[in-house]
Write the structure tokens for this entry.
Amino acid sequence: SGVRRDLCRQILRELPDAFIGVDAPDFNLGLEARLKAAGLPTIHFVSPSIWAWRGGRIKRIARSVSHMLCLFPFEPELYEARGIPVTYVGHPLADVLPLEPDRAGMREKLGLPDGQLIFAMLPGSRQSEARNLGPLFIDTIQVLAQRHPDAQFLVPLATRETLEIFQQVLDAAGGRDLPVRLMRGHAWDAMTAADAVLVASGTATLEAALLKRPMVITYRIGQWQYRLMKRMAYLPWVGLPNILCNDTVVPEILQDEATPQALAEALDGWVADKAACQRLEGLFTEMHLHLRQDTARRAAEAILPYLGRR
């Protein structure tokens, strides 16, 4: 694009030691390809999800990137196999989130009784997700509220817009009397306080794992889009907790299987089985320790050799 071309010229005029692209692969990889072709070292922070899709994209990455910085421990071998310099730097969320979340303290902060059954429901951060997944989440809340009349449901929503959309969906479903507490932001707080979490696939699944929460992962998209994704996928899972554990450690209930009854049943499965929750907590603590690598320091150490070469 014209913007990318102009930016490339401007960067090359400045003659930096290296270019560091942070995420945004659709924009950055094209820019990095031009810069690398002009002789400038390019470092890309956060590997695109090539492990989720078939490997055609890695050829483009090889043309664009002098050095890839990866967040997950299974990613480097994908790059090493193609001769692309790579460093595993861990995940910054693992540095930020506590190894032992204070559930009792969080409940006190949120004014929730210690013994009350609490579910956190995270329908996604996009407006389209609040609109499309909202009815499914509300129907699931209705099923659970009938089974557990004293339960409370925390629904953290990323922005004012997503909160308003979810509120509209809730009103349309006649859910005003449900024990639902909508929160703007505060997803970590809601998950920390909860007994179990229903979460739309995405980074929130990793956050729930780092907060050591039992969860059920769900998602619904258009059928043709889902079939295309299934055909292109390397892995049998969509959720990062299962991908990182290389095993189905939490249920993934997707597409037509994602009914309110099925989701409520799976969430109840965690509530009823404290031993399973403890085993999961152990797995997630192990995962947290693997991902906690002091990401900023490791990334800086990988970048330093490229500085001062010009």
About this structure: The CA atoms of residues 158 and 292 lie 25 Å apart.
